[in-house]
Amino acid sequence: MNSSIPDVTSDQDVQHHEKMLECCKTTLSLDEARLGHLIDKINSFQVAVPSWALGTGGTRFGRFPAGGEPRNLDEKIEDVGLIQALTRATNSISLHIPWDIPKDATAVQQLLKQQELTIDSVNSNTFQDQPDQEFSYKFGSLCHTDDRIRKQAIDHNIEVVEHGIKLNSKVLTVWLADGSNFPGHHHFRKAFARTSDSLQQIYRAMPRDWNMLIEYKPYEPGFYSTVIPDWGTSYQLSQTCGDRANVLVDLGHHLPNTNIEQIVGRLLHFRRLGGFHFNGSHYGDDDLTTGAIKPYQLFLIFHELVTGANDKSINNPTVAYMIDASHNIKDPIEDLINSLENIRSAYAKALLVDFKALELAQKENDVVMCEQILQAAFQSDVRPLLAETRFRSGGSLDPISFFRAKKIRSNLITKRGKDSVATGL
Ligand SMILES: [Mn+2]
Fold this sequence. Notes:
By secondary structure, this protein is an alpha/beta fold. The chain has helices at 14-27, 32-44, 73-87, 105-114, 147-166, 188-205, 231-241, 260-270, 295-310, 332-352, 355-363, 367-378, 383-392, 399-405, 408-416; strands spanning 49-50, 92-96, 118-123, 171-175, 179-180, 211-215, 225-226, 245-250, 273-278, 320-323. It contains 15 helices and 10 strands. The chain has an 8-stranded parallel sheet.
């Protein structure tokens, strides 16, 4: 338990929780062994929080910060440490370069250790210009028509890897804003070929134990085309780079009603699912709380992940899970706790699916039974199971109530100020 945080269980209603847990065990027919097994599984499902998620996000219309935002990398690590202490569901932090360049890697390592955290992936940024940079990315980065600009973007990615090495990261995530806003601007084939070549150069510069994740997005900021719009393009680029390049699925990076669970299944089949960015959306890249809008879809995605993990013929690499959301209205810390709870809820429900019965029903084309088996798991109330998982690993039974009862946000405002702004936003 993080020593700077007071005991998180002392003021919780343990008795009430125990009653709820007994109900849950009865309803789900869980004996102690099965309960322990589920808790171990849920406990090992850890999701990284990115360094840019601790401040208030905004829209292009405005930003309404709550105050007490972390002013530097150390304070961001402290915030993730707090979320980890309360939830025991996020044991790593993902860094954005150049927003969060560690000035003293040894000191950062020490702070991470104190907070029981590690560095997950490092993320490059060629979607905006930095004050000291020579060339602009207005018309793209890795796809650019000008070799000098491409080289600048490639060098930036290599520099990001160098920062990551100092912090024991082993994953570079590349998301490109490269695309076009109007027909005719991009020569689609040439822009793709230049991007592929740039990614290969970055890939070759990475140490041999590093992985590259290639994220796709169908639109925005390019409203007519993006160079990497879909999983197929990411897949092709990964294959061209090599075994250590894989596809990253961001839930918000799909057109409305896309069957994301099928994409996940397909990538597992190809052994190319490398990373996952969780968020919630109704229309596009809304970056809302994970599971807030489409909990059934989230469950179906986890169902694919769990069946993939159970299938011995699938040899997919370890998937890097991260929350990639923006908190416009909610307190960022509460929102992240919300998301972690919803993610684990979907995972726990997917673990409850009767796979053998489902397999049989699928073989017999018993459509009704197939759906009922999934619904039986999806409609289970796993909240006591998640609370017990946190409790056993030293977290809080009810993290948001704890956060509020201890007035953590007002304490942060007192310490950091009402107008503190998280770097990068
Ligand atoms: Mn993302």
